[in-house]
Specification:
Layout: E1 2-11, E2 14-24, E3 29-33, H1 40-48, E4 55-60, E5 63-64, H2 70-73, E6 78-81, H3 93-98, H4 113-118, H5 120-124, H6 135-147, E7 153-157, H7 165-182, E8 185-189, H8 193-199, E9 202-207, E10 210-216, H9 222-229
Parallel strand pairs: 3-8, 3-9, 6-7, 7-8
Antiparallel strand pairs: 1-2, 1-4, 4-5, 9-10
Length: about 230
């Protein structure tokens, strides 16, 4: 579904992504892993068009993403949950969710009911401002906002960061349900190894801007964990 070949990105003179190759198969959950500062968030931002790539190929199905501005990528069916959630604090929960509706081809006027079924707390708090929610509730709101697009690919940047354990468990259940029951393709950055192993079908490890290893999640060995993931 998402194919990345020899992708290069720079911050000034700093070479952040180096001839990076990555395949995200349709219908599977791919977990992007690696220590801090190795290029994981940079890669996601390149996919979303928030950072320019210097060279390489970035394709979503048959579409060349590098030729499209950022604002057109959501309309292709790519949902994005950024690191730090980035909800609109002065808008209500309902208003935060409705922001994604114009990007849908069918242009519905109401938030799809299944969003509230996945996240009952959002239904209970839909009149409250986003900034008044707890961190875990804001993360659920950020995921719900991305799902409003009815995406084919959902990208999440550290969805468990700073979240209380019971909400982490709930988010994991929801991601597994979306992936296994609806076939939604997932690409997520995750630092927590138990969570990654629980939700992921595949892994890819980045180090110094390169993809160093990838494969089925059951092939993530302790040797790889020690070499690339253990601080």
């Amino acid at each position: 579904m998402l194919s990345i070949e020899r992708l290069n990105q720079y911050y000034g003179e700093s070479h952040a992504l180096r001839d990076l190759d990555l395949e995200v198969p349709a219908g599977q959950c791919t977990v992007l892993m690696g220590r801090n500062g190795v290029g994981k968030t940079t890669l996601l931002q390149c996919v979303m068009g928030l950072l320019p790539a210097r060279s390489g190929s970035l394709r979503f199905g048959d579409v060349d993403l590098l030729r499209l501005p950022a604002e057109r990528r959501a309309g292709l069916g790519i949902g994005y949950v950024p690191q730090g959630r980035q909800v609109f604090p002065l808008l209500t929960v309902e208003e935060n969710l409705r922001i994604g509706l114009p990007a849908r081809p069918d242009r519905p006027r109401q938030v799809p009911g299944y969003i509230y079924e996945l996240f009952p707390v959002l239904k209970d708090m839909r009149g409250r401002r986003g900034g008044d929610l707890s961190g875990g509730q804001q993360q659920q709101l950020a995921i719900g906002r991305a799902l409003v697009l009815d995406p084919k690919l959902l990208i999440l940047d550290e969805p468990t960061e700073g979240i209380q354990p019971n909400i982490v468990q709930e988010i994991g259940d929801i991601l597994r349900r979306l992936n296994r029951d609806t076939g939604l393709t997932l690409l997520l950055v995750e630092q927590k190894l138990p969570f990654a192993r629980r939700v992921g079908d595949r892994f890819a490890i980045l180090d110094r801007g390169r993809a160093m290893a990838s494969g089925a999640m059951e092939d993530l060995t302790e040797a790889l964990v020690k070499e690339y993931l253990t601080v």
